Task: structure prediction
Amino acid sequence: MLDERIARFAPRQSKGISYREAGAGPALVLLHGIGSSSASWLFQLESLAGYRLIAWDAPGYGASAFLAMAEPQPADYAQALHEFLERLLLKDVVLVGNSLGCLMASAYAAAHPERVRSMLLLGPAGGYGALADRAAKLAERLRQLEELGPEGLAEQRSPTLVAKSSPPIALELVRWSQRRIRPQGYRQAVHCLAQGQLAVDARRYAKKVLVACGTEDVITPEAGCKAIARAFPRAEYRSLSGIGHAPHVEAPKLVNEMIAAFVPR
Result:
């Protein structure tokens, strides 16, 4: 049962931030997407050996406290991440993000490049900040939340996050997290997405970055992810054949191998 597998990695608490942890070795900080949670990294927590894996629940997710501001920016989540890592005494980390987690990762790396060894960004969400239709996109995301709620989002949105050929457990895990989003936290994260400009933050981080995107990703398609990779001074791009928006869930063996090749143990 999926619930039993997730329960093996019970959330811990660090002054308002909940997180799941496993393993020992170089620290990998795993940052989830907007409709997700720390549990989305289950398959890495179970099988990615040789690293200390720390999967946080972003502010407003899981049992993490909400941010104080109603309409936070990526820099606000980056500051929360900075304080969290300070409490864990972590000053040399690799950030592994998915979707909105990549926006938060890049904001943190831009603010504290000396603390980030490298980044691996899976299906990065670039943010709406530079788009002419930013307000319309923001309004639509908020409308979906109000009309559908967590359960409706899980049923309608989750299938778009994974490729049709993905194993059934991938969709099950995506839905598990989506059902458990907290509306206030999701609403704050939507404002973060609406104000974000990952490409701007990218220019301020000059260390090694790997950007990867699934060929079946309809949420952050390859064209946008390739543009994000080009925005970094030192990034390479990898196309993931037949995979959707959640590679770490859909193809954990492949992603684990990518991490192992990218991050020396």
